[in-house]
Structures are given as structure tokens and as C-alpha cells.
User: Fold this.
Amino acid sequence: MQNEKLPTQTIETILADNYQGDTAAFLRDLDMYVRTRKPMPVHKTSVPTGPVLIDLKNVTRTYKLNRKNTVTAVNNASLSVHEGEIVALTGPSGSGKSTLMHLIAGLDRPSAGDVVVDGRSIGHLHEGALATYRNQMVGIVFQFFYLQPFLKVNRNIEVPLMFARTKRKTRLPAIQKVVDAVSLGDRAAFLPKELSGGQMQRVAIARALVNKPKILLADEPTGNLDSKNSDAIMSLLQGIRETLGTTMIIVTHDPRVAAWADRVIRLEDGKVIA
Amino acid sequence: MKVIDAYILAATKRKTRRIRTGLVVVVSSLLFAILFFGAFVAKGVLDASSQVKDVGFNGRNLVSISATGGGASEDFKAETDKIHADMDAELRAKGVKVTDDTRQDASYTSEFARRMQAQSVQQASAAQQQLTDSVTHLGKPTAMYHFAPMSLAGDAVYQPSPQADPYADKLKQEQEAGGVAPHTDPSDQLGGFQFYNVEQAMLRTQLQPGQNGAWKPGEPYPLFISYAYLEKLSGRSFAKVDAAAHNKGYRDLMKQYAGKTLNYCYRNAVAQQQLQQVEIYNYKAAHDTDKATNPVDVPLCGGFDQALLKKIGVISDPDPNAPKPLFAAPASPAPHTQEIAFKIVGYVPSQSQYSGGDIVSRVVTDVNQLPGNSEMGIIPSEVVAQDSVLQPEPDSFYGQFYALFADFATRAEEKAFIAQGCTGNECGSPKNTKPYVMPFGSISFALEKIFHRASQFLFIGVVGIMAVAALLIMFTISKVIADSTKEIAVFRSLGARRRDIAEIYYLYGLMLAIAGLVLALVLAIIGAEVVTSMYATSISNSFVQTVGAYNTGMHVHLLGVRWLWIGGAIAALLISAFIGITIPIIASLRRKLITILREE
Ligand SMILES: Nc1ncnc2c1ncn2[C@@H]1O[C@H](COP(=O)(O)OP(=O)(O)OP(=O)(O)O)[C@@H](O)[C@H]1O
Ligand SMILES: [Mg+2]
Assistant:
């Protein structure tokens, strides 16, 4: 169906722009493309120009395994993300992607260094302020959605508004807006078990966005979805960034997903290498 | 967060583990329902009893006092040995050689029995004196009453019909049936009438309007009869009617029979024995073919021609040639038969002769120690003292009071007096010198006392039930919340503060607790209503029988609210729910959010 949109770039450009010279990844995708006849993702939009929103300064996170052994999940990582930017966090399994995301989400605190978001040092906030930060500043999308099984879609989306003590009157338009953004208007009264995986992920995204956070954090948001749904989710996120200007950090293994990002940051053994 | 939002989130918990949670709520609410039910019914009976608090004895401050231990012979063998030794010594003094066979002699054994009886009577009267003395140490009742049986028992036969021979009917029946053995013990057919006496003042609340207990020689004796005897006289039974009709029936009968004269035939023991002998003779004479023997006329209420009785062999002169007995029997008095009349002046509540005891009367058995059988009547002891016919025979147990009552001016004095009596096991102890004191005729007093005692016994049971129910609720709630650890972490990642989490789960626990409570109350109320519909009539009837017919309507509803019990149960429920919620919430809030989220 999308055949007319087939890429016209040369392989060199694709390899350089979308795969940062990673020939193996390119060949894997090409192989899949040949077999599935799916379009190659080429969706670069504008390069971000906003100010720095997220600033990681020499962040280290170590976990104590027992008395003697520790694991360094994130090792002296520094990086900056600009407002409105979509950044993909990639890297092999165990490289510290999730840990880094959790630090930015305020779900975890760094062992050393500083996570500064919007000028505030997240690692040093007390519990109450951290809860407000998670509620207002970031929206988190988990791989397994974590929806409330007995709440209808619109109620699930309402949960962050509840914790924000938002007035009843202003809730409805807020929910309507995100439900429309993820095109789930016709599923508002459904229970999660009555939805497909892609729809559930869209509910999770809508819930993450309902408090109009500046930052959307997603850990493997497409990990459970097929490539068609993955593309749909990513194009949705890109559309949201365009309308709402939300900064996004997306943890992924999948080069197809990474290809949607403005910038790909690669981690290896807890270190930022690109 | 807003309460409504906390409710929305808490309400969804209801849908997880629905069956297990539901089951536990049902089981624990059943346990609480038992508690509530007990409280409702107990208070319902108390409330009902307070509606008749000014009826008859129930409006008085009376106690009954009985001796505990003592009195009875401490060493029975030593006593009998002493009597034997005395008798043997008397015989030796008369020059009789005492051998082992001597004690088999008929006159010896009857003399022995007479002396034993005399001794028991003496002991009984000593014990009663002791009891009276002990009471004067305990407090100052405004009056003391002595309740005693009388010697007319079995001797006076009411004669409602002109039928002279009380055996005639029986005889005819048996002849028609082909004849059976003659009556060798006719006293069971004679029945007779149990009389008791007690001071007039004791009975003052039982007098019918317009009647009094005064008496002059030649007048009918004033008589208080039992409700059961009233039923028998009238041939009525209220066993099958509802409580209101029952109560009204008694009131109508009481009015109708007040002032009525009842005629009895009094026979002393000798006359009574002669009548029985004649009955047996007549029975045989009617059965045999011997033309020479003919039944003897039995007069309506009169003696027999002694010469005739001798002729037919019913009585005989002592044989002048018979050997002299070892111990001479006391001379028997002449036969005496006389018509006597009673006037009904009042009534004493008693069990109906037609219905058995229901739960309440069983509970308040202690309340009325007045004999409740259908042959019962009470003559004021002041009247008994003035009349020779009613006097007890010498050395008889009759005339010894067997119940002592004390009257008090106020309920407080009565309570203080009761507190001086022995309680529980103390009463049975050989060292105990305190009498056993019970409120008399006061149902609510007795019920209060019984409930107080019962609740002491039940305390452990109640605490046990509460503990089981509370633990059940605690464990379910804490299990459900422990299962929600992940959910709590997700809520927190969406911006929930600790307080929000606490609100959601406390609300959830409260919902479970309230559901359990409502269910428990509904079950208990249904139970109380069912029991009311089953027992209200019989309980109301038992009030009529133990307290007396009352002038006001009585409403028995076994749904009295005991706020202390209900409050205690609610507190137990809420505390256990609180603990059951707090522990897992604290446990899950103490864990690192990220560790929980990483678990899959
Ligand atoms: N709570 C913890 N305790 C001990 N070690 C931990 C803990 N959390 C993470 N680690 C370790 O930190 C390292 C980084 O883990 P992280 O989940 O960030 O990797 P990841 O890049 O997200 O991997 P994946 O792609 O497989 O999800 C791993 O070696 C992991 O074992
Ligand atoms: Mg990960």
C-alpha cells in the first residue's frame, strides 16, 4: 500500500543517515524488507533547535549485588537532550538503557553525578517533589503498558489527572485531546483486555501524555508489537512531538524504531559511546 | 487525591480475587452476625421484660434465700448407730434379750423409722433457724416470709360434681375393659390438692381487686390458686392461642373466678386409709360371684359406719392374744371427715399445665420457686395458725418452711443484699456459710444477672470469634494488598504520592469492612426477625406465666440494640482492617520503586 512511498535514496545515504554506517543492521532490515515488502522507515523531520532540557552530568549508577560485588549499570554518562528532540537510546542488552531512562524519569537516583531536568537536579528531590515531578514533568510508557485491567480506557488515562488533583471539569477535554491524538476515540469505553497490543500501547501513551509533560520516556514501547504496529506507534509519537513539542527519549533495540529518532544515542557497558 | 478518585481506584480492587475476598467477607461477617444476633436477642428479651416490670411479684423487691451446705447430717452412719444403740438399751432395760433378729422385728423397724423422721425434722428446723439467723447478719429486709407446704396434701379432694365415689368412673372403665388388678395404691388416683402457706404480706400484690386475706372461724378459708389450677378449674387452655389472647384469657378467668367458693372434703390420714380400703373391697365385691359380698355405700363427704367396716373385715380390733410388740405404735386418731370451703382471693403465676417451658421460662427458672403444678393453692399462714383443721401433724415435715423470702424497700437495698450471698462455686464449698440469694419474681433482674454471668462465660468465646473474624479480614486484605505491590509501583510512577496510595488502600479496606459489617448486620437482623416470629408468642406467654397476666399490651421484638457489643465488633473489624492494610502498604512503600518495576 505504501509502495509508492518507496525510498529513492541511494544505499550509501541510507547507510550513512539511518544506520550510522552499521552495515549489519542495514542488511538485517533490508532482508526483512525484501521478505515482507515493508517500506523502509525514513522519517527524518526537522533538527531540534530548542534549549537543553535534560542534562546528564557524569551520571553513574551502581547496584550492590552483595557485600563484595557491585554492578555499574550506568558509568559516568553525560548527555544533553534539547527541548522537542526525539532521542533513541540503543545498545546491547544490559548496557544500561533502562537504568538511564529510570534516572531521568525520577524512578531511581544516581549514585554519582547529576541529572538536571529543566534546571532542577532530579537526584536530590525529596519523595513528595519527586512524585510531582513524575506526575507533571514526565510521562512514562512501559513495555508492558501496566494498564489497570478493570478500568475503562478513559479511566486509565484519567489516573495521572487523579494524582494531579485536576478539577473534574478540565479533565474531560484533557482526556479527549490525548484520546484523539492516539486515535482511540472509538475505544474510550473499552476495557484493556478488549484491546489489541498496539491499542493498549496507545492507551499507555495517552496516559503518559495526559498531564502535558515536557518529556515522554518510553522503554521498548514497541517491544511487544509487530513492525507494522511499531511504525504506527512511532509515527504517532512523531506527530505528537510536532503538535505538542514533547521531548522524547525512546529506549529500543530495534533499528527500525531508532530510525524515527532525530538522534540515536548508543550505550555500551553503561557508557555513552555515540 | 480526591475521595471520589480514591474510590474509583479502590473499587476496581473489588474485582480482583473476587471469589476469595467474597468468601472471606461472608465467613467473617457470619461470625460477626452471630455476635450481633446474640446481642439483639438478649437485649430484646431484656426490653420485653422491662415492659412488665410492675406486674405482681415483678414490681416488688423480693429475694429468695436458700441454705447452702450444712443442715444435712454430716455422718449418717454415726446417727443411725446412735438410734440403734438407744433403742437396744431401752429393750435391755425392759429385760429383752437383743439379738441380730431383734432388728428385723416389725415394731422395731417402724419405731426406728419414726425416730429417724423425728431427727430429720429436728435437723431441718435447726438448719432453717440457722438460715434465718444468717440472713439477719446480712442486712435488714423490711419483712421475711416463710413458705411452707401443708398437711392437707392428698387429703382434701375438690368436689365439683355430686359424684360421691371418686373411683366409680375408673371402676366402670375397667369393668368394661375386662377388669384389671384392684387399686392397691389408690392415692395416685385420689390426687388431692397441694396446699402451701406463706405470710399474707408476701401475697399482697397477688390479691384480686375487692378481695382480702382476712378470715374468721366459720368462713371459707381465703385461697390463692395457681394459674395452672385456674386453667384446670375452668377447663380452658391457652396453649394454642397467641400471647395477647393468652394474657386476656387469664385476666378474664381471674376476674370470673375471684370470690368463688370451692368445696373440698377433708379427711385425716385414718379416714383416708379407710376410704381406700373400702374402694378395694367394693372393687372386689363388684368383680366376684359371691352373693354375700355387696359394695358399701360411699358417702359424698362423710365417715363410714365403723361397725359395718368391722363386719366386712376392712378394719379389725387388735388381737388380744397377739404377742406384745417390742415397741408400741402411737395410738392412731379417730377417723375424721369434714367438708371445708375456700374462697378464691388471688392468683399466683405458674407454668401452664398444658405447655412446656420455653426458652425464656427456662432461662428464668430461678425466678419463681413457688410450686407451679396444677394442684397448687396457697393459704395465708396467719389463717393456718388460727385453725385446728389446717394444723400440721406432729413430727411432720409439713409446717417446716422450705423457702425463705425477704422483702426490701428499694431495689438498691435488694441488690446490696443479693451481693452478700454466695456466688458460683463458692456456694457449693463445705466451708461456705453464706446463703444462696436470688431475686424473686423479678424477671428483668434475673435476666440481667443471668446475662451478666453468661457474658462472663461467653467472653472468651466472643473474643475468640472476634479474633478469628478479625484475623480473616486482616489476612485477606493484606494478601490482596501484597498482590498489589506492582500496581502500587505503577501508581507511583504515574505520580502518586505515598498519601495517595494510603488513601486508595485504606478506602478499599474500609469498603471490605463496611461490606462485611452490613452483611453481618443484615444477617443478624434477619435472624432476630425469624426468631421473633418463632418465639415472640411463647416468650410473651412465659412472661404471663412467670410474672403474671399484665394489664398493658406487651410487644416482644427480639431485636434490641446493644451498642456496646456492636461498637466493640465494629471497632474490632476496623482495627483489624487497619492493621491488615497498613502492614503490606508500609512493606511495599519501603521497597525501592525501581526494584518492583523491574520484577516481571
Ligand atoms: N536493581 C539492580 N540490581 C543489580 N543490578 C542491576 C539492577 N538493575 C539493573 N542492574 C544491572 O544493570 C545493568 C544494566 O541494566 P539495564 O536494565 O539498564 O540494561 P538495558 O540496557 O535496559 O538492557 P535490556 O536491553 O536487556 O533491557 C545490567 O547488567 C543489570 O544486570
Ligand atoms: Mg531495558
Chain B touches chain A through 26 residues (CB under 8 Å). The first strand of chain B starts at residue 62 and ends at 66. Residues 63-140+410-439 of chain B form one domain.
